[in-house]
């Protein structure tokens, strides 16, 4: 027998009340920038598709880095530049000098750093008997040309101890620093001018120890020093704890544990904001942010969680942009690539609407770059890349 209407209405009301847990704040609506799609000119050479991987504001110009892939499977490095403060127009190809180094010629640029109005980059192309990434670095000449550094030492970035070469930053003591990993754990490379780097591996407490296996993912220059972010896996455990390392000279390091939980956690990106240093990464099944002081040596709090990593895929924070009034993070999880925004301390997270959706997968990429109130969005769904700009809405 069908129940009386009054009982049906009462049941619906009880279900609605039960679904609203007292004290749970409502999910805020996503921020909706007014995106404008940009056009990047095709660099000289064989026709192909543009791939975009990183963006930064450096000096008085914006830069987008990546490469070109031809139908035959060949790749080459590419860099674009505009002096438009809003990054909305005027994009031009930056000349790239590759010389005759096999892997410089074929590199795709993945990471940009800035110092003194000049950019430097990390690029790579998989090759060799094991298909490992063959890493090369690039620096800006005074005339603006990006110059690839040929390999003079196979084991500088590769060889039997190769693991990863991740991010590059300028502006700290000694000039430039790269964060990455070798068989001995977290490792850095330094250079005064980005024309040649020196490796610093097996440095305690940056590197592995009997108690902790370490990994480094990102670096940032701070007043009077460097901060490197990553994680450590304690002996006998399968989960990681989040760490940063600080140094005033890139030779002597101090390891600082970030506030953690019983979950697997890793700091994957770093940013300097007017309010201090913020680390971004994963904490269990969520993305997370940790906030520290301006030097990265203390005052760390968090993790402040946002989003959901999902299961069945490698999840993480791929890029962070610092704007005048907000930070924006690009993440990837089981449901694909997403954008999120928070205040300058990494609090009060909410989603950001994007003009295109990019799913998960090894051939996809999403990145952001920002300065002032301008945000750049770079997307690659594995078949086509797009670049977008917006004046980010203020809270």
Helical element count? 2
| Extended strand count | 29
**Beta-strand fraction estimate:** over 45%
- Head-to-tail CA distance between termini: 54 Å
Signal peptide: 1-18
Keywords: Signal
What does this structure look like?
There is one protein chain. The protein has two helices and 29 strands. With 395 residues, the protein is mainly beta. Strand 11 and strand 12 (175-182) form a beta hairpin.
Task: Give me the secondary-structure topology.
Blueprint: H1 5-19, E1 36-38, E2 49-58, E3 61-69, E4 75-82, E5 92-93, E6 96-97, H2 102-106, E7 108-115, E8 118-127, E9 132-140, E10 146-148, E11 162-172, E12 175-182, E13 185-191, E14 198-200, E15 212-222, E16 225-234, E17 241-247, E18 254-257, E19 265-273, E20 276-283, E21 286-292, E22 301-306, E23 316-322, E24 327-333, E25 336-342, E26 350-352, E27 365-371, E28 374-380, E29 385-391
Notable characteristics:
395 residues, mainly beta, five-stranded mixed β-sheet, four-stranded antiparallel β-sheet, globular, disordered N terminus
Q: Nutshell version of this structure?
A:
The protein is mainly beta and 395 residues long.
